[in-house]
Amino acid sequence: MTKTLINDINDVWELTIEMIEECVTKFGGFYLVIGGSPCGKLDRRNRYHRNGLEGQHSPLFYHYAHVSSSVVAGEFLAKTP
């Protein structure tokens, strides 16, 4: 059995819905999406700048959720670095 690998995308902002649709069409969906967003502003250990989801990088959280919900099959696993 030959397996096809999907290239890593280093920046979620580079990922478009068209790219997702192409992969879903090519592979028939995904069973697992792994990723995450910068969590420094959400972390309890950050005593000074806890803006939560209103922080400068927080839109990445919403973008990641949108990307993962655009995938047809599977699981959604948020990974905190």
Automatic annotation (TrEMBL):
It is found in: Nucleus. Its main location: nucleus. GO terms for biological process: methylation. Residues 1-78 form the SAM-dependent MTase DRM-type domain. Keywords: DNA-binding, Methyltransferase, Nucleus, Repeat, S-adenosyl-L-methionine, Transferase. The keyword Repeat applies. GO terms for cellular component: nucleus. GO terms for molecular function: DNA (cytosine-5-)-methyltransferase activity; DNA binding. PROSITE patterns: SAM_MT_DRM. This is SAM-dependent MTase DRM-type domain-containing protein.
